[in-house]
From TrEMBL:
Record-linked InterPro entries: ATPase_V1-cplx_f_g_su, ATPase_V1_fsu_sf
Organism: Alkalibacterium kapii
Family recorded in the similarity comment: Belongs to the V-ATPase F subunit family.
Keywords: Coiled coil, Ion transport, Transport
A molecular function (GO) term: proton-transporting ATPase activity, rotational mechanism
Entry keyword annotation includes Ribosomal protein: no
The keyword Metal-binding is assigned to this record: no
Coiled coil region boundaries: 26-53
UniProt-listed Gene3D superfamilies: ATPase, V1 complex, subunit F (3.40.50.10580)
Protein name per UniProt: V-type ATP synthase subunit F
Pfam family, any one: ATP-synt_F
């Protein structure tokens, strides 16, 4: 099993390649859709890494892949621009998940 990276910039893709993770750089909606479908079809890919910006720009494609695919894990990762999440993301996630304020 392996990982595959789909990114909107060459820096993230290059960094992942240095770590042994193959990937592709895409920008347009159709490119993102085709790259995700192709990555999911390859049964060797256990984890697909997708930059947060692409996931934010094309949420309908990401949702469709997550709903219709049970074998591959789709993970959003930050890129060189940093994370798009709030600084208290982990704390608020725990609050929502178990109802305990930290």
């Amino acid at each position: 099993m392996k990982m595959f990276c789909i990114s909107d910039n060459i820096n993230t893709t290059t960094g992942m390649r240095l770590a042994g993770v193959e990937g592709i750089v895409v920008h347009e909606k159709e490119e993102v859709k085709n790259a995700l479908e192709k990555a999911v079809e390859d049964k060797e890919n256990a984890i697909i890494l997708l930059t947060e910006k692409l996931a934010e720009d094309f949420p309908e494609i990401v949702s469709d892949i997550r709903l219709n695919n049970q074998e591959t894990l789709l993970v959003e990762i930050p890129d060189r621009h940093g994370t798009g999440r709030r600084s208290d993301f982990i704390t608020s996630y725990i609050n929502e998940a178990i109802g305990v304020k930290i």
